């Protein structure tokens, strides 16, 4: 009786802990008893095992076939002997006899966990894989278990996830038992089961944190158009609004900066620039270089290059520490950005102008060529002067001939 109670308890515990269907557990238990029985009888008998939920035990049955002449005493029984058990039996029928399975049930109870794990491992892995594959790109909270070859192993409840070294934030330190939030980036099925990969450095981590903090983003009123990060240091996020009455930047910042501050706290002080997104690449680049003020923008759309001019006192701000600000802006816009100060731009223009003048001087004809040109001009002028004299003479002759004509007309 105690064994039956223990068996019932073992089944209930496995169902609860593993979250496996009760029928699967009972089938595995039956298989455990049957395996133990076949091992004892050296597979010489036709046995079946069935779990009885009422009694809470696995019942073992031996089946023999009714024959006229017995050739295998373990699996056959003659007709006369069979009719002593069941008077209506006929040749070819199968008779079942219940065996004492107490010993086998005890063995099954002891090995149930191992047998069930072997039997349902694939089903359990598939369940976990399907559950977490639907949660890809979702932020999840877990508990740090241990470090293993640089990876941080995180307990998610039903599964264990890995946070690789390259996906960990710089200067973050965790100890076993600490709670951690990360985004699920990948779920792989391996021979050891589902492998869940987490990240705290992926740009989507930042986007999802804002989605959790800003209701307008979750509702689709405010849209995140682009995100770039230098994890643990600085990030830029471009947002736009589908409602003209809603300021996307203000919605993300929140009252007195409460919303963005929550995100900054989660990312351990990572600075976040929230900028308005624009289809105009020049305007978008100016926004992306914030907080620096831009004076001029020259756009080469074919090569995706932007030449940006800023005031001299804004140059270091536009470039940022170790070029971080301009690097993030370039990644955000998808363009190469060249930044110049106004004084350098003016010097470049003067140099270009001087170069242009010098080029013109080089193109002036040589002295001999100039002389030949002058002679040619003089020759042309002489011809034109002669033609002018002839025209003048013709004009004079015509003027002199005019009175004679008038005299003839008078006559």
Automatic annotation (TrEMBL):
Name of this chain's protein: Transcription termination/antitermination protein NusA
One Gene Ontology cellular component annotation held by this UniProt entry: cytosol
UniProt feature, compositional bias: Acidic residues: 360-372
Domain S1 motif positions: 137-201
Location within or outside the cell: Cytoplasm
MF-aspect GO terms: DNA-binding transcription factor activity; RNA binding
Described function: Participates in both transcription termination and antitermination.
Biological process annotations from GO: DNA-templated transcription termination; transcription antitermination
SMART domains to which the protein is assigned, alphabetical: KH, S1
Quaternary organization: Monomer. Binds directly to the core enzyme of the DNA-dependent RNA polymerase and to nascent RNA.
Keywords from the UniProt entry: Cytoplasm, RNA-binding, Transcription, Transcription antitermination, Transcription regulation, Transcription termination
Region (Disordered): 357-381, 392-411
Biased composition (Low complexity): 392-403
InterPro entries per record: KH_dom, KH_dom-like_a/b, KH_NusA_2nd, KH_sf_prok-type, NA-bd_OB-fold, NusA_N_sf, S1_domain, TF_NusA
Pfam family, one: NusA_N
Organism in which the protein naturally occurs: Oryzomonas rubra
Family: Belongs to the NusA family.
